[in-house]
């Protein structure tokens, strides 16, 4: 399978995993060794953040600099990753495409606070990861639809309609999908 880096994964309704049910995942890396992505449509509430960080954690100071914090995936929930427009780059930034990059340095949060950060961004806690051939098997099983990523969709589409909107781009009415996959 060709690399799916810089693509979106849209979970199918039968995927009941609480982390990925009705999720849209932006793939930051995909190779023969595995894949890494960020869930882009699940904002965390204040209560969720308190469950992840102790009230006395110094990281809370950094979280207050951005309007919304997102659940990026179940791997390394204590680690922040900023998905952002690629015009911004510092040491440690990883360019995904001509338009998108990721950075996990606290320096980006300081730059956002000082209004010197990227034009568009999302702070994610955690990420999604797949072992060698795992994602390919899940796609073959019908667990995910794959779509090219468009920055406007990632940053501008309302989170509450993102999953339905992404699936409907395939002409799929998610209200009429059966809860079964891999039955070909």
Task: Detail the poorly predicted runs.
Answer: 179-184
CATH architecture: 3-Layer(aba) Sandwich
Estimate the mean pLDDT confidence.
87
Q: What structural class results from the helix and strand content?
A: alpha+beta
Instruction: Give the name of the CATH superfamily.
Output: VC0467-like
Number of strands: 10
CATH class: Alpha Beta
**Which fold name is given in CATH as the topology?**
VC0467-like
Instruction: Give the fraction of residues assigned to helices.
Output: 10-25%
Number of helices: 6
SSE map:
Layout: E1 7-11, E2 24-31, E3 34-39, E4 43-44, H1 46-52, H2 59-63, E5 69-71, E6 75-85, E7 94-95, E8 100-103, H3 106-113, E9 121-130, H4 134-140, E10 144-148, H5 151-156, H6 159-168
Parallel strand pairs: 5-9
Antiparallel strand pairs: 1-2, 1-10, 2-3, 3-9, 4-5, 6-8, 6-9, 7-8
What does it look like?
The chain has 184 residues and is an alpha+beta fold. The chain is built from six helices and ten strands. It has helices spanning 46-52, 59-63, 106-113, 134-140, 151-156, 159-168; strands spanning 7-11, 24-31, 34-39, 43-44, 69-71, 75-85, 94-95, 100-103, 121-130, 144-148. A hairpin with a 4-residue loop joins strand 7 and strand 8 (100-103). The longest helix is centred in the last third of the chain and has 10 residues, at 159-168. Mean pLDDT is 87; it is low at 179-184.
